[in-house]
Amino acid sequence: MPVAFTSLHAATLVSVGLLNIGLAVLVLRTRSDQDVRPLGGFLVGISLWTIPQGFLLVETDPAVGLALSVVINSGAVIMATGLFHFALAYTGRTEWLRPGRLGAIYLGTCLWIVVIWTDPIHNWMHQPMEYTEVLLPVVEYQKTGYWLYVFWNWSLSAGGIFLFFLEYVDARGSGVYHRQSRLVVLAPLIPGAANVLAFFEVTSVNYSVWGFGATGILIAIALYRYRWLDLVPIARDRVIDEMRDGYLVIDDDRRVVDYNAAARSIVDEDVVVGEPIRTALPEAGPLLDGERTELTIARGATVVDATVSSVGDERTEGAVLMLRDVTEQRRAERRFQALIENVSDVVVVVTADSEITYASPSVQSVLGYRPADVVGTSVFDFVHGEDRERAINAFDELRTGPDDETRFEYRGRHRDGSWVGLEGGSVDLLDNDLVDGVVISIRDVTERNERERELERTNQRLDEFVGVISHDLQNPLGLAKNYTRLATQSGNPDDVGMVADVLDRMERMIQRFLTMARAGTTITETEPVDLATVAADSWVATATQGSTLECELPADWTVDGDYYRLRHVFENLFRNAVVHNDRPVTVRVGALDLEGSETQNPGEFADHDDRNTTGDPVGVFVEDDGVGIPESIRPFVFERGHTTSDDGAGFGLAIVRDVVEAHGWSIEVRNGPDGGARFEIVTT
């Protein structure tokens, strides 16, 4: 006997549809995960299936009834497809989520919608229909297409419900996830069961349309009571079982109640659910007893970092033990630590406020400090005052600019108070959790800088040498050509002698130029040199033009030096005294004491100052009784090219200075006691 339905029944069906479509809009607007889109389709399909049925209960026009029936059938196929798709995504069935398989399902759904909307034309699903005022209008004369349509919908719906059931079984005992999965499996199961019962005429009314009201209510509870889709274990097998970190869930009796594959491989034995944790992993005792919050465990060759956190619900309390295999990380840390601690470059880590938090051991060989001496200080405390502002600006630019790496070269303070040339680079790794600082690498470039300066000086002397040759040799070269032409024409021996004199002059100039070019190079090998002998040999090699030498140097006094280069010093000083005076002069060579005064003999000098424990002089002087050097030009006498002689190249005293400085000594020019020039060379 048909059941009579009222407007109240129709209103309840419309309300069920509105509830589900409201949930669909809420889910799609508040969740960005693509996995919830098929859930929205499932809820929209429910609305398309229930709302038209509510109108159909009060509608008597057959044409309107036909249109509503088409919408109802379309909603059913959309609902079944959305349910199955969401079940696949929710349970992580990735093999079915591939475009090929999923596309085939949606292609079938689209074909069924086309068949449904065109059925009044071809009648493949039904013969001509009559609609009555019963719920889910009885359609007479169903054809084969209709049963295939029912099979398609029921297969997809049953498949989705089965996947949810498997997830429910898998989530048992997992607290909130268990309650979520229970609601999820009941939501489609209730209306599905009601539909099956009505189809087989177990019930006289198909209550599935109201069952979908229960579906909407259960989904709402899952969303707002149990934070469904916030804590939803979508693809649990993929997320949990394939995660690299292991976990062991422990109940309040310290028994293992759950674990994943990573935990089993880390523990290195078969973990049994219900087994005491102290049997499976006894090393974790300090964590579970609250003695430690983190723990490093060695399991054979495997190193594991372990942490623990509490979990529980209203019925039980437990803990989750997280295990992370850090074997490779520890091996890499030891490898990089060995590299950093054994390289010659200094590696320093500083905070954003420039405080040093780490310094590699090589800081002691480069700057003389132990690592503990510099940790806690500002890195700018070791930068030369003239370079500090530039270093601070570069550091600030590194922290705030577009580049996270910079190069620099500053002077750094050595422990002994000296300044060392430092070169390196900085990398901003403050955002790196493992480093949390700016990493600075530093190397000592003092020797390299000195070599570069020496090369620069050598190149400068070479440039000067080439310039002088091209300029100063032009005049004697022109004279030589003229005298050669005259000698060729006249055959006069005097003309030939003039050519020889000019060539001798050019030879002397070239020799002085070569001496100048070589004078300033660094002296790497020295030997004890008797300065009295050097002075005597140099005087013999000098054209003295009637001048005399008085050598008052101690006979047994030697210095570490280069004999031949020291010859250049004395020869140039002697030649300077001879050629810059218009009469023969007396040249005196003697020893200097610590105060710069001369001493007459070794015994007298040894008693002069008790700081000199060896009895050796600290320097030598060369002076003459000529006209001397005007005070106005004394600051320039050692410069290259400076000369007051008509045929001089201006390199004699420059050579003297270069050789003296190459020995690590110093030289000054003063007035002599007899009014002439006095050069003092300090050798200590």
UniProtKB/TrEMBL annotation:
InterPro entries: HATPase_C_sf, HATPase_dom, His_kinase_dom, HisK_dim/P_dom, HisK_dim/P_sf, HisKA_7TM, PAC, PAS. This is histidine kinase. Its EC number is 2.7.13.3. One of its GO terms (molecular function) is phosphorelay sensor kinase activity. It is an enzyme of class 2 (transferase). CDD domains: HATPase, HisKA, PAS. Residues 332-402 form the PAS domain. The keyword Membrane applies. Gene3D superfamilies: 1.10.287.130, Histidine kinase-like ATPase, C-terminal domain, PAS domain. It catalyses: ATP + protein L-histidine = ADP + protein N-phospho-L-histidine. Residues 406-457 form the PAC domain. It comes from Natronorubrum halalkaliphilum. Residues 468-684 form the Histidine kinase domain. SUPFAM superfamilies: ATPase domain of HSP90 chaperone/DNA topoisomerase II/histidine kinase (SSF55874), Homodimeric domain of signal transducing histidine kinase (SSF47384), PYP-like sensor domain (PAS domain) (SSF55785). Keywords: Kinase, Membrane, Phosphoprotein, Transferase, Transmembrane, Transmembrane helix, Two-component regulatory system. The keyword Metal-binding does not apply.
